[in-house]
Structures are given as C-alpha cells and as structure tokens.
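The freezer alarm interrupted the setup, so I double-checked each line after restarting. Inputs confirmed:
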Amino acid sequence: MRDVAVLGVGQTKFGELWDRSFREIGIEAGLQALVDAKLSSEDLGGLFLGNMASGALIEQEHIAPLILDYAGLAGRHLPAVRIEGGGASGGLALHQGFLAVASGLYDYVVVGGAEKLTDVADATAAQILSSTADHEWEVVFGATLPALWGLVARRHMHLHGTTREQLARVPVQAHEMGAKNPNAHFRNRITVEQVLHAAPVAEPLGLFDCAPLSDGAAAVVLGPLETARKHTDTPVRIRASEVACDAMALQHRRETTIGEATVAAAQAAFRRARRDPKDVRLAEISDGTSIGALIALEDLGFAERGRAGPEFADGAFALGGRVTVNPSGGLKAQGCPFGAVGVAQVVELVRQLRGEAKERQAPATELALAHDLGGTGATAVVHLLERAG
Amino acid sequence: MRDVAVLGVGQTKFGELWDRSFREIGIEAGLQALVDAKLSSEDLGGLFLGNMASGALIEQEHIAPLILDYAGLAGRHLPAVRIEGGGASGGLALHQGFLAVASGLYDYVVVGGAEKLTDVADATAAQILSSTADHEWEVVFGATLPALWGLVARRHMHLHGTTREQLARVPVQAHEMGAKNPNAHFRNRITVEQVLHAAPVAEPLGLFDCAPLSDGAAAVVLGPLETARKHTDTPVRIRASEVACDAMALQHRRETTIGEATVAAAQAAFRRARRDPKDVRLAEISDGTSIGALIALEDLGFAERGRAGPEFADGAFALGGRVTVNPSGGLKAQGCPFGAVGVAQVVELVRQLRGEAKERQAPATELALAHDLGGTGATAVVHLLERAG
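Predicted 3D structure, all chains:
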C-alpha cells in the first residue's frame, strides 16, 4: 500500500452564503487546494466529494461531475464520485480518496466536502438532517438529532455526574476559537451564562449546545508521499484512515453514552499508526452538540470514561491544553455544513501542523487526529495525520 | 496494486416490491452474495453501497450503516460507505470496493446496490430522477431524463438515419431476455408494433423505449484474487474498473449523440486490460432508453459510429450475436432500481461467465464488459471482468 500525503488545502468561509451557489463554493475550495498544492488541473486524477443531502436540499443529486463540470474540467473526463454518510460524509470522502491513492490507481486527487443548508427553511433543513438517524425507528416518532442527543446528555449526567455548566463550557470554548478564525460562521464570544439561559432545543440542550446549519465547502489535495516534496515543504502524511459503524438507532446501542463506532475507528487508527491517544496533542472532533463533544473525547481516549466534563471545564482541551481540541472553532463556531465538516477538520489540522494557523495556532506538534461523526454515531471516521518534515 | 476478484453474487427480484422495505432487500442481496462466496459475516471487512436518492425517496440518508445494522452486524463496527452518482451509483460503488481491496487495506468486502423507487408516486419519482440532470440548466426549465434523451434520439436519427423501428428493436430484445430471467421486472414479450404504438413519453420515445421505475437490490463479494480459489471454483477477476465524467447538461456536451464519458471510461479500461472491443462477446450496458443503448454500443466500440441502429436490428447484439448484450433483460426488462443497476449488471455477467445463466446463457466466453451510466451521461463506469479459471 502506497503512503499518502495531503499536499494542499482550501476552504470557503462557512455561514449563510445566500449569494453563492453550491457549485461556486465547491469550486472555490477545490481550486484553493490545487493552487496550495502547486498542481495544475492537468495533474488531477479525480474528485471524491462528500455531501449529505443535496438531493433533498437543492434537488440536485449526481453532484460530483457537476462540480468538475463547473470548474471547467468536463473535457478532461476525470472520475468524480460523491460519498454520503450523514455528518460523516466528508471524512468518508477522505477515506475513499486515501484508498484511491494508496491503491496506486490514482496519483493526485481532490477530496472535497460541500453542503448548502441555508437555502431551505430551517425546519425543512432540520427534517432533512434527521434523515441521518433511523427513519423507521426514530424519526417517524418525532425524534430529531438534538432530541436524541438530549437523551444522551441526560444519561451522561446520570451516570457520571456531568453538569449543565460543564456542557456549557464546550460552546464557550468553540466560540472563543471561532473568534480567531476568519472562515468561521460565528466569530462572537459567548459566556457560560448565555449558554445556560439560551432558548431550549431539547432539554438539557439549548440553542448554544447545538451546531448551526451552515453553508460551506472544504477541499484537500492528496498524492503519493514519495513525490510530496515537489508540491510542498511540509507534506502531511495520512498515517491512518479508519471507518467504523454502529447501530443506527440510539435504542439499539449497547450504551448510549459510548460511541462504539468512534472507539472502534480510533483504536484501529492508533493500532495502524503504532501510536496511542497520549501521543496526540491536537485534534478536531465532532461537536455537533456539546454532549457529543464530551463523549467523543472519552471515546477517542483523550479522557477517562465520564471525566470529559470536569476536564473540559478545567481547560484540558483548550488551546495549549493537554490536547488542543477544535482550534478551528469546530462544528459549533466554525460552522456545520454537514458534508464539508470532515474535510474542513483536515484543512485546519494541516494548517496547524504547518504552523500557519496564526492567532489560533496550537503548540507545535507532529501528530493530529480528525474525528468525523454521522447521525448520532452510526458512522465514525478517524484520521491520524503526521507532519512528514 | 492487488488483483481483485468477484467471489460471490446475489440479487433480489426487481419490480414493484411494495411488501418489502429498503433494508430488507439490501440485506437479502448481501446475504446471498456472502453465502455464494462461502464467506461468513465474520470474514467481512466492509460494505460499499450504491444508492441514488434514498434521502428524497424514503427520507433516509446514511443508509450504509443502516443495512449493516439490520443485517445484524452493528456489533462488528465494520466500515460502511454509501456512494452516489445517479444511475451510475452501483458501478461507482463497485469501483470504490475495487479500490478498497486493491489497496490492501480491505480483504473481503460486499458491494451492494439498492433502490426503492415505487414507494412514492410515479410523478414524484420522475422528479427525483431528474435531479441527476443539471438542476439549474435543465430541470428548472422542465426537462426530464426521457425528454433529454428524446432530443438525443432526434439528433441521432438526423445524423445517422437511425429509424424509429430500429429504436424499437432495443426494448423488444430486452423483453425477450427478461422473459427468461426469473428476477426480471417484466417477463412478457413485446412486439415492434406494440413499441411503435405505445403512449408517447418524449417524442420519438414512447413508453417501451424507457426503462421502468423498479425496486431492487444486488450485491457482489470482492476479495483478493490470490485467495479466490478458497471461495469459488470460478473466480471472476476485475481486469479494469474505470470511471469518467462529462458535462452535466446536454447543451454543454460537444455532441449529444456521443457519450464522451463512456468513450473515455471504455478506452481506459481496454488499455488497462490490454484488450480491445473486438475481444468482448458479452456485455451488460445501460439501456435506460432505447437510444441510450444504441449510443452506448457505439461509445463502447461495439459498433461503428451511427451503425448501432441497423446492426441491432440485424441481431448483432442478440443472444449469440456478435456481442451478446444485456442477457439479463437490461434496465428495460430486468428493471431499473437506479443504484442497484451497476451491481446487478456484474451479478449477471458473473453468472454468465460461470455458465450458470440457464435459458439465457450466452455462448461461452472469458471476457465481459459492464457499462453503467448516470444522468444523461455525466458519469460512466466501465468494468472488464474475466473468468480466472
């Protein structure tokens, strides 16, 4: 299997991009990544595009060739493939792009993620998001993603004594970082008080515990590690790319406060890279809800089971803490264009590993972890990235 | 790159399966393929699932883990990925499964395709199918897939003298083969007269020129060729798996009667396998419309440009002809559950290469080609399969 490196990264602003079409933002991110990798489109071998629900959201399926086409590349007749796994679509696209290069069949590929969530009414978008949970066993009974996460939060509080205030620290930190990220959907700082008094979404979760609906796109260029130096002084090697799945419906999980898909993907990734969670000082994790972020930290091995709440509140996961978590602002503050998230996480980590993250730069480190989640955890994708020089 | 073989195949009946859910048919096909490959689910390394529009059709995205879950495999935490490219979704899923095994990261995987089209009104389904064309440049102006193909047919007639009767021979042959396929949606024979006098859909295409909306699922097990003999006496090697794309909108193509994506994918596949179209005596091709089938035969190199119509009428592509085309009955008669089609084509070809196709068995041959198409041709996938012993 051939070693694979990230050679270039690109990303649009995340937010309510009402003046920009799906195809425009997809192209902007992809071209940025190509330029960053010093590649011309003639070197490009294919496109792997993560997207959750363009069919339902903008009545357009079959979007991978669409993006190539509007990038002016239709005449090249390149392969283009869309990958979907709810909120994990971007991470899955990266996995497919990784396999493509690792197999030797492809040399240079763009992996993109794009989503246009704000062109429909919020209620419609929320309904479409729920289609990433189990329709027949959850959604028809009225469950939404935040409602399901609300149940999980209650149980985590019951089992481990996690407090409402500890949950609130998650979005407060996210907005702190978002304020430093020019691409972030939200760049305002918020306080624990504001989180506690925000409108309830699904008790105990309020408005600030839940990531927003965002538009946005992100892209990376992958290629063989052996020729990476031609394209960048700081290639970032993909040391592991692992996917794991679990039961769709929360009620069919063994324990709702353990994300077994994340545990399985992380263990597989650490095994493959011959590293363990203690080696990781930098991570982008799925914080679609505050409780989801705390559970992910436990699933990934960054905190003992049940301890993520107090440790988060103690600053263990702040910029420069034990593990710098979500320096981008995460899904909460950088924004949550579902299919773009998993790719944007890697864009951020590559910038961090290169030392290009400016005021949100984490302490220098060589290893970073990206964690992307679909639904309430039926799909998890974990990537381990390592600075190759 | 590791050599990849098809070790097992499975397929549900295609048709209006109102009594069966999406998850049921997906599982039936997958389990059949596992049993056929003499694999237990414990040997399974992952699932790659082709599906066009489950989000819009059954309000369920994120379906790959759903299928694993309802197959009783959630506890294994396997990777599961959905791939979408309109009507080419199944072929693309096969490409991804091929890359997974070829890379060495996966050993045994199931590649499935599934679609449930008949649970919504026909008009709704037709609208959803149109989301695989260019929404902003075609669909908003009222174009549907058959309407676009109708334009292409007129132009093929104008350029090459293709006749309405020649077009009609395509569905007549499809139904002839469907009558011999117990899984086919349509098992009735039809006549040229019936095709010519059927209700118009988009002139010159009538009801019988267009494939139906079907439910159905198909699956194959892929694994390394080197260990294939443990699982089957007749492993079928994937000699080439190639994807190519073209402009989404018909009006942006250089020539609407040439499927450049198909040409590019086929040429790449023949180059990789060091074969040419003359070596192929057996093929499953995309016949979503009668004109689409004729153009595909020209694009694939089975007929000179403009000659597919008369040659089809002369029986060149009938069972035992120069190339036996669509012995399954094709999309027209076996049925057209979009995301399942590309996988079902390979199921049929494997059965043919093994000599298990009973009354629809083509003359013995070692090489076969599968051609899957998305939209009006923005995505094409070509696989070359070879009996390995």
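Quick read of the result. Chain A touches chain B through 63 residues (CB under 8 Å).
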